[in-house]
Amino acid sequence: MAEIPILKIGDCLLVSIQVDMHDRLALALQDDLTQRIVADRARGVMIDISALEIVDSFIGRMLNNIAAMSRVLDAVTVVVGMRPAVAITLVELGLGLTGVRTALNVDKGLALIRRIIDSEELDADRVG
Amino acid sequence: MSVNRNVILSLIDRHFQSLLAGWQACLRDTSIGGAQREADAVELATRFLEELRRCVAIAQFDDIRTSEWAPLRAMLDDLSRTRAIQGFSPAETAIFVFSLKEPLFELLGREVGSDAAELARQVWTTTQLIDKLGLYTIESYAKTREEVIIRQQQELLELSTPVVELWDGILALPLIGTLDSSRTQIVMESLLQRIVSSGAELAIIDITGVPTVDTLVAQHLIKTISAARLMGADCILSGIRPQIAQTIVHLGLELNVVSKATMRDALALALRRSGMAVVGRAEPAKPTTAAE
Fold this sequence. Notes:
The structure holds two protein chains of two kinds. Chain A has helices at residues 23-40, 57-72, 84-92, 106-127; strands spanning 6-9, 12-16, 44-48, 76-80, 101-103. By secondary structure, chain A is α/β, with parallel strands linked by helices. Chain A has one domain (6-127): Transcription Regulator spoIIAA. A five-stranded mixed sheet of chain A has the order 1-2-3-4-5, sandwiched between helices. In chain A, helix 1 packs parallel to helix 2. Chain A is globular and about 45 Å long. Chain B has two domains: 2-155, Globin-like, CATH 1.10.490; 164-273, Transcription Regulator spoIIAA, CATH 3.30.750. Helix content of chain B is 66%, strand content 9%. Chain B has twelve helices and five strands. Chain B has helices at 2-14, 16-30, 35-58, 70-86, 90-98, 101-112, 116-159, 181-198, 215-230, 242-250, 263-273, 287-291, and strands spanning 164-167, 170-176, 202-209, 234-238, 258-259. Chain B has a five-stranded mixed sheet, sandwiched between helices. In chain B, helix 2 (16-30) runs antiparallel to helix 6 and helix 6 runs antiparallel to helix 7 (116-159). Chain B is elongated and about 105 Å long. Chain B starts with a helix and ends with a helix. Classes of the chains: A alpha/beta, B alpha/beta. The interface between A and B is medium-sized, with 19 and 18 residues.
């Protein structure tokens, strides 16, 4: 079974999904990703889905789950590169992915993660 | 039926002129147009009678959809199309055919004479034929009108969904007219396409031109906003009129989006969010200071 590579960039993890997601692959990705977040002490997770032409409700829920899991592990999740057709389909399915941050491309995604981490640290400083 | 065919045929042949004159008198009574329309009607009536004569001679009465009736049908198509476009009402269009009944029945009565049963039979078959022709005219009229409506709908769809780039990374989507599902689809697609091509992070959706916001329109707005959010662009809603603000609250709608009353405020917010500011230019140095 193909495995989805997880790349480390600074304190971020980059997952680029290039193959069609089937359900077992999605579950395996959840497993791998949570382990890597803990192992690498990552603060941000970026999931690039620009190659995906089809996103069904299961994959939509998986993205939501990953975001929720990484939040528990103190990492922010940003989904980048969603295609217009996919966005329309998800909205029609009633999946707004409200718990997930989004960005147009990897560049903007990285900038967004940096901004969120910085503001969180600022908040932490103020409280401390 | 053949008896009837011969009766009508000979009737049209022998009394062509008086039939035409009687019909024209009826048309004149009912017509509302000026002299031009009347002249048109006279010419049409003559052509119609000639075609009718030819068709009656060869065709079956009970079905006017056969090929023998084709020339007459083409003529009626033509008539209803021009009248539909000129703005005649359906009744004014159909009366052209139906008003032939009066002079025709009068002649039939004179022809058949005192045999009541025979007269009733003749009138029945004739009226059936004329009714079919009249109904065909109305059908064809309605078809033309529908074509006009469909064409206008498509033109409206094409007209009404511009996506404007206001500034680097700031798009504006001025919505005009009611948002139904097919329009929402087009609006959404063109907005998302522009977000991809311009890399914009902010989109201002301006609903100044949307006459009413009900639950359905709000749902369509929410869909558009969440689709843009999935693409990584934030939306700002602007142009909410006081009346619409009240409606939204009364309906209990939750839009979950930053909204501003005017496009101006929305643009100011968008500029601030993307780290830009509009400042007045400094006063140019006065010539006197330069001379000193």
